[in-house]
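Sequence, structure tokens reproduced for reference:
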Amino acid sequence: MPEGDTVWNTARTLERALAGEVLTGSDFRVPRLATTDLTGWTVAESASRGKHLLLRLTKDDAKPLTLHSHLRMDGAWRTFQAGERWAGRPAHLIRVVLRTAKSVAVGYHLHDVTLIPTNDEKSFLSYLGPDLLGDDWDPAEATRRIAEHPDETIAAALLDQRNLAGVGNLYKSETLFLRGLWPWTPVAQVHDLTKVVELAQKLVASNRGRWTQTTTGSLRRGETNYVYGRRAQPCRRCGTAISKAEQDERVTYWCPRCQSKT
């Protein structure tokens, strides 16, 4: 699942391919934008906010627009040189195509594709908490928001984008393992929420700029994570088999011994 660092990396990929370029064509395969034509618009900037992608567009005296998209569980953007064969995913998953003279950006299985005035970005995403990779990152504010819901589980609190923007199942599971927290622990019973929040941000930020996500420090296959994706494998600390369960319709991995209920 794309998390904050993956979305940030995707924004940089789109920036390199499109920034400063004039769109020579666009193709939207989503109902609400089916007739939209962005030909002649310039891609001014590619940015991210938590798990949201923002392509900012300008054109002469027109009001700037932002193409917003969300990757959710299975979305992705791919970039290709003009004339290059598109590869990687089936054509029926394509939702957006943006063309320039030198490159093409193809959005596969994108969600919440919306075109909004750039000036409305702040209000459009106002519900989000501090962005783990943004200029607005504020651990004290993220901690305050989490603490406002003392009965919520700490796992659910970390995934709630209204508390902090950018954590998904991987970083949730890894953060809780490293802090020794049982995923179903109520927020009110978590000692030092700030350290939990700061660790989550540190883990996400450590993978900014690369596609391989590691929390252990190793980039070798099979060694990148402590618990995530390792069901029934031995804990790297104590040897106990890692557990996996559905939690609030999301997947969670944990070590029953290192993260015991009591």
User: Anything to note?
Assistant: The CA atoms of residues 181 and 259 lie 5 Å apart.
